[in-house]
Design goal:
Blueprint: H1 6-10, E1 25-26, H2 37-49, H3 59-79, E2 86-89, H4 92-106, E3 112-116, H5 125-128, E4 136-140, H6 154-158, E5 163-169, H7 181-190, E6 194-198, H8 210-213, E7 217-221, E8 231-235, H9 237-242, H10 255-258, H11 266-271, H12 273-285, H13 292-319, E9 325-326, E10 338-342, H14 348-354, E11 359-360, E12 362-364, H15 369-374, E13 383-387, H16 394-407
Parallel strand pairs: 1-11, 3-4, 3-5, 5-6, 6-7
Antiparallel strand pairs: 2-8, 7-8, 9-10, 10-13, 12-13
Helix pairs in contact: 2-12, 3-12, 3-13, 12-13
């Protein structure tokens, strides 16, 4: 592996060449990343050359359909699942809601599901609403001081054999601790339960090998993985076939259609192949494999190593302050680079005060009302969230630290 080439990486993101964004440091990546150049190029090409109904017997239509098929096939391979086990939808929230409606009919009276209070509401609310139909909802609770979701607490929730589904995040969008998905899925599987993993806050930091994780469903958002605004869901074929069809009756035999009733956004699906383009080029440029799942694994490790490197000085600086509370682990190896801070007062005005210093960040509850309340944080006050990815530079981190010192000049330990 060659040394991380930050200038090369940043040159692959058109936003960094925009004059209005010059001297600005983007720390709102958990809300959506900058799109990479291959995605922008593919989306532009589709809209200018191929914006026709796909799969018809003329050239432009055939090209449109082929590019949509390419996106599904290449991303599925990178995620370690079969091509037809990957589907696109308008958003992860919508994909989760539709999945929950299928599960509603799949569950039998007296059965239960497990949810956590660590999740973004998109992977909590739809499941909790099943209680309206008599489904028992069991809450797997985080440690109120640390936000940690303890796998050792899960077996007790599954002990009576009535739980059919466990829903939890790969990592929270405010706690940011990376959960041991493979271990949790193994515990659930041994108890006869399926698993649904919200990967929205993890996937931007490297696509996981979903096949190796052992989960039944994995969901994430392409627009947070340098792509267009689409939700991506993988589902194991055996469970996908078992769940009732949610699409048009004549699409029920096609796995990647049966849980996505909305008409697909052809252009955005096609453009999602650009995510694969970027990950493969990232790997190859740094001495790794050039294609497919091996390239994705290499890119994953490269991205994570870069982010851990950038996290260290930020977490060290925050550890020396007594005027704020860091949510989640202090060890950069155990967390995603999504840094949520509880401040003495409301967070949104602080985010606004950072803007003149060239820091693009946000304050609020970030749809994480349940975990904030569980950790004693008033959602109305919210948290200051500073989130970044592998394309963030050392200069960005330095600018952030200077800005925090200027805006929050409170006492240090």
């Amino acid at each position: 592996m060659t040394a991380f080439d930050a200038p090369w990486v940043r040159a692959r993101f058109p936003a960094f060449a925009v004059p209005a964004l010059r001297d600005q440091s983007f720390f709102e990546n958990a809300g959506g990343s900058f799109p990479c150049a291959p995605v922008v190029q593919r989306l532009t090409r589709f809209y200018t050359e191929r914006k026709v109904q796909p799969y018809a017997p003329y050239a432009a239509s055939q090209l449109a359909g082929a590019e949509m098929d390419e996106a599904r096939a290449r991303l599925a391979a990178m995620l370690g699942v079969q091509t037809h086990e990957l589907s696109f939808g308008p958003s992860t929230t919508a994909n989760t809601y539709v999945l929950a409606q299928a599960v509603r009919k799949w569950l039998k009276p007296g059965e239960a599901i497990v949810v956590t209070n660590q999740d973004h509401e998109a992977n909590s609310g739809p499941w909790r609403r099943l209680a309206e139909d008599g489904v028992e909802i069991r809450e797997w609770r985080i440690d109120p001081a640390t936000g940690h979701l303890d796998p050792e607490a899960l077996p007790d929730l599954l002990s009576d054999g009535r739980v059919r589904l466990v829903c939890f995040p790969h990592c929270s969008n405010v706690v940011a601790e990376i959960n041991d998905v493979a271990r949790i899925c193994a515990i659930a599987r041994a108890a006869g339960a399926r698993t649904c993993v919200d990967g929205v806050s993890y996937a931007p930091h490297g696509l996981p090998d979903v096949g190796a994780l052992g989960c039944d469903v994995y969901l994430f958002s392409a627009y947070k993985v340098y792509g267009p605004h689409q939700g991506i869901m993988t589902i194991r074929e055996d469970w996908g076939r078992e769940l009732p069809n949610q699409a048009h009756f004549f699409n029920g035999d096609t796995l990647y259609k049966r849980l996505t009733p909305a008409g697909p956004d052809h252009a955005q699906i096609a453009a999602s192949a650009g995510i694969a383009d970027y990950l493969e080029s990232l790997s190859a440029h740094h001495g790794g494999p050039a294609t497919g799942a091996p390239a994705a694994r290499f890119a994953h490790d490269l991205m994570r190593a870069r982010e851990v490197h950038l996290l260290r000085p930020l977490l060290a600086a925050l550890a020396g302050r007594n005027d704020l509370r860091l949510l989640g682990p202090t060890d950069p190896d155990r967390r995603a680079p999504t840094v949520a801070l509880e401040l003495p007062g409301p967070a949104e005005p602080v985010a606004a005060a950072l803007a003149p210093h060239g820091i693009m960040a946000g304050g609020g509850d970030f749809y994480a009302v349940r975990p904030l309340r569980a950790m004693g944080v008033d959602p109305a006050k919210g948290v200051l969230r500073l989130s970044f990815t592998h394309y963030t530079s050392e200069e960005d981190i330095d600018r952030l630290l200077r800005a925090l010192s200027a805006v929050l000049p409170g006492a240090t330990r």
